[in-house]
Predict the 3D structure of the following.
Amino acid sequence: MDKYQQSQKNQLFKTDTHDPYRSQRFEGSAICPQCDSVYHAGNWTWKSPENTVIHDAQTVTCPACRRIDDNMPAGTLTLSGSFLLNHRNEIINLIENTEKKEKADHALERIIKMTDSGDDLIVTTTGIHLASRLGHALEAAYNGDSDYQYGDDEYVLTVSWKRDE
Ligand SMILES: [Zn+2]
């Protein structure tokens, strides 16, 4: 492993352990009663034919459902600008499709909610990776200006995206 890979690995490790909602690690397996995701070997994943039969699984609410219950987003994306007002449905479709793709592979990356705030649209997420991916998807599809601010101590990402006609 070279220095770059090592630092990437440390970064990933750091990111996961920084999430206060994921700090709860435990032995054995679990199933979330709210979304049916499955915890095994330190990871939460969707139920699949390979992990459907889990012996002695505990019932534990997964970090994503806990964030949704608490309304404590890890990622917050704010969209603004007149382009949004004129392409709202198209943009919401892009956001929903991007979530669908991310969520399929990563059970803990979900949208909490989309809220209007004046002319802005605010999208909150259970994971910082989804917030980042949404920002990049908007840029790839529509250009515009975006900004990514990672919290220093907490597991949070604030993304803003803006485009005027
Ligand atoms: Zn859950």
Summary: The two ends are 47 Å apart (CA to CA).
